[in-house]
Specification:
CATH class: Alpha Beta
Number of strands: 7
Order of helices and strands: HHEEHEEHEHHHEE
Shape: globular
CATH superfamily: Vaccinia Virus protein VP39
CATH topology: Rossmann fold
Bound molecules: S-adenosylmethionine
């Protein structure tokens, strides 16, 4: 990894044994299934954690590169990969610098990750780089609240304890705007409350498309057109 991996052993333990299971108990599996439904081909998941998405990948996925920078979570993800229904390769890297060639994936997946990355714009630029033209980003994220009162609470928590307690997580990010700013077209979007109303309760689940490659110019037939003055 170019920059040192974020070692967050306390958060890793807390997420793997407390917060992650609590999310699943609250019904996260339903959203994970919806996030991954219909995916095919080569897929990259950024910030895979300990692999809670793995059981839900559909059989059309030929290869999943699961990127996780936190060592403890990555080790647990490697265990989960062995039981996954699709071939999973777990790699240690940050989303800001993905270990992949340009245009080498059909789809990318983020779930509850863009709230935590150090540089959201850099991660989205990397995702765009590794996706083929017309490839899709699937996202399930908690985001900035709709009401101004809850936004105020999010701002206060983001500026104080929340990122420290929750592995770098931020509550008030406008992630859908960031996805658009990165050059994606959002083609499906659902906003809902999960797991409960409150500062971490506004979720979005959707799909964004990397623009397709521009069509090549049509081949000219016939003699070359005259150029210069008088050409009309
Ligand atoms: C709340 S956990 C979500 C894990 C998993 N995606 C899930 O749905 O259960 C946030 C994850 O983002 C990862 N993360 C934090 N910074 C990252 C970065 N710069 N690049 C990639 N992943 C990152 C953390 O290590 C952690 O696994």
């Amino acid at each position: 990894m170019a920059r040192s991996a974020p070692r967050r052993p306390l958060f890793a333990r807390y997420y793997a044994h407390v917060a992650g299971p609590a999310l699943e108990k609250a019904g996260a599996a339903r959203h994970r299934r919806s996030l991954l439904e219909g995916l095919t081909g080569r897929v990259v998941e950024i910030g895979a954690g300990h692999g809670l998405n793995f059981p839900h990948y559909p059989p059309g996925v030929a290869h999943l590169l699961a990127v996780e920078p936190e060592p403890r979570l990555r080790a647990l993800a490697a265990d989960a990969a062995r039981a996954a229904p699709v071939p999973v390769e777990v790699a240690g890297a940050r989303g800001e610098r993905l270990p992949a060639d340009g245009a080498s994936f059909d789809a990318a997946v983020v779930s509850l990750t863009l709230c935590s990355v150090g540089d959201q714009a850099a991660v989205l630029a990397e995702i765009r780089r590794v996706l083929r033209p017309g490839g899709h980003l699937r996202f399930f994220e908690h985001v900035r609240a709709v009401t101004s009162g809850t936004r105020r609470v999010q701002r206060v928590l983001d500026a104080t304890v929340w990122p420290l307690l929750c592995g770098g997580c931020h509550l008030g990010r406008d992630t859908v705007a960031a996805i658009r700013d990165a050059g994606f077209t959002v083609t499906a979007l659902r906003t809902f409350t999960f797991p409960a109303p409150g500062p971490a309760g506004t979720c979005v689940l959707g799909t964004a498309e990397k623009p397709p490659a521009p069509a090549p110019p049509p081949e000219r037939s016939g003699p070359p057109r005259p150029s210069g003055r008088g050409a009309g």
